[in-house]
User: What shape does this take?
Amino acid sequence: MESKFDAVIIGGGACGLMCAVQAGFLGKKTLLIEHNTKVGAKILISGGGRCNYTNLHTSSQQFISENEHFCKSALAQWTVHDTISFFETYGIYGKEKTLGQLFPTTNKAKDVIEVFTNLCDDLEQKIQCNTSVEFIKKLDNGFEIKMISAGNTNIIECNSVVIATGGLPIPKMGATDFAFQIAKQFDIKLTKIAPALVPLTIGHTYREWYQKLSGTSIFARVWNNRASFEENILFTHWGLSGPAILQISSYWKPGEDIFMDLLPNRDIIDLITKEREQSGKMLLSNFLGRFYSKRFVDASQKYLPTQKQLANLTANDLILIHQFIHQFTVKPAGDKGYDKAEVMRGGISTDEISSKTLESKKVPGLFFGGECVDVTGWLGGYNFQWAWASGYVIAQNI
Assistant: This one.
């Protein structure tokens, strides 16, 4: 193996692959090191294997960070239009699903990965899998990296190092805290990290009720005092999942309540009032059956007078029904952890790196991109757009 590169990119996910390709376009020589047997492991499983590779509505508003402005520069340098054009150039066309989410028309995530592996071959960017980095040493002019592959040790030199090793989720896919080890080595500050886009669990007191509803999906508005989302929720035997829950989890802190409107944009009391003018003898259970599954209606009798006729509902009954439907309150016991999280919240502090170049302010030539940085997107392709953008930006500056 050659011993000198313009840059060594550690991590063969979305950010690392884009960085290698864009560096190649500029005539720079890179080595991409991947801990797994193949690159793009997380790309391959994203969107159920279909890869929701960007979102048409991307702006800085869909990202969480201690510095809400930090991501603006990278997202301006590499836009959603750039992502779409890039993939179309290499035969991948997008189709929009819900809420601006763009998927390949082929519905195959492996096609996205092949764009990068083929380009790396064409541009002579070296990819080395099944390889671990033992240490990174700062030299007067560049870096020295010790890596181990198949029991063999190599020491190479490079001008720049790119850390694109992702966050902590999905340890079974080889994700590690390598970025944070490097941050510690170079005295680079981290923000508090936590699982994000993650299912929420319920305490034992209410567990039996949730178990009865397991598998039930409802379109709802879910909110707290920081954010609000309208998408499906999914009741499970241990708590709550579904897109709206994953979204709000990024804005939830332990001990806090979240609220759910189980019939958004309609008023259950108005609907009941109109119905009982026509059919006051109808049972509340039958009325609710117009909007919800039998399983949900049956389970709700624990809290609602479902066997009462609409005409016999009292003022207190109506208040109870309104609160249950429009302000269903949940105090999650916790979350399902990094193993079930889509991404990580927090990471390398944005105070430590340039928003224009993503280069460390303390260690010239050291770059951080993708999920390991304190920039966390919503569900629906936003984190991929950040990964592509940060990979592009770093490639311009190595």
